[in-house]
Amino acid sequence: MTSETNLTNTSYHMPAEWETHAATWLGWPHNADDWPGKLPTIQWAYGEIVRHLASGEVVRLLVNSAEHEQQAQNLLSRVGVDSSQVEFFRHPTNRGWTRDFGPIFVRSDDGIKLAIARFRFNAWAKYPDWELDGRIPDLLANDLSVPAIPIQFEGRDIVLEGGAIEVNGSGTVLTTEECLLDQEVQTRNPGLSREDMESVLCGSFGVRNVIWLGKGIVGDDTHGHVDDLCRFVNPRTIVLAEEKDSHDPNHHILEENRERLEQARLEDGSPLEVVRLPMPAPLHFDGVRLPASYANFYIANAAVLVPTFNDPHDRIALGILADLFPDRPVIGIHAVDLVWGLGTLHCLTQQQPTVAGITD
Q: In terms of pTM, does the model score above 0.85?
């Protein structure tokens, strides 16, 4: 990372998601086009998400206006959310996918400073409306009085979304070739090579090891985000989505990724432990396959929130994750409606790590 601030000589890294949060960020839902005919239902789903998050950390909500804030307050009060655990920030957004446009926080290696790794956002190189979302990291850096460190390569701003990467907090980052290297479809950074992107990832997140998977799951309109298929659950263990039906197009995609992980190594040269996580049965809307995946869970301070889909595999996925997270409850959140927007829990959330034990 490069910056003109006085922090240029300080090393930063991105903590793992299971490390203690000062807060979780969400954008209160308002774009009806993301959830056709379901926006009121989605707002109630958010209420359930916030209720569970607020039991263990502050929830910071982006709202478009005073009216928008009042709407959120009223709903959260009705579902029993402790209002002292919720903070509102009035900054208009285009959409609510905070993982991707929101602040990607990094912490100094000495644990006493927080910063935002300031990537450029362009709506997944797909949608035309992104200017409001693109301003959010700078606005929040100002609100929080932390630096937003511009991420560049050879003087060029780098495009990257939070859902494109996954870290273990110990020196390894996981991503996909489809998202970051494809030069034909939804190209984020035209002309940048694998080596260029590895340099960016290592410099931005304080890692020294990059593991490349191949493609993302079918139905993912981000073109290959890793948080729909493969996640770290501790520094050495990964859960990988599995599709056993050989006729499902996800079967071959996920098996190819499994083969890559079997050959991959962590930052210290040791192999990963790979745990298989089932896929739910396919879900469709208007003839389009939706990116339903249990891998899109979110690790909060007081719980692990897991999307569920009224599917027989729900209980299996919850059981696997419960075994992997013995230190906090694993809670299913109904996500059949959420996934109409082409994402679920991890896509909606972004964690803010603690700094030197301070939680604000």
A: yes
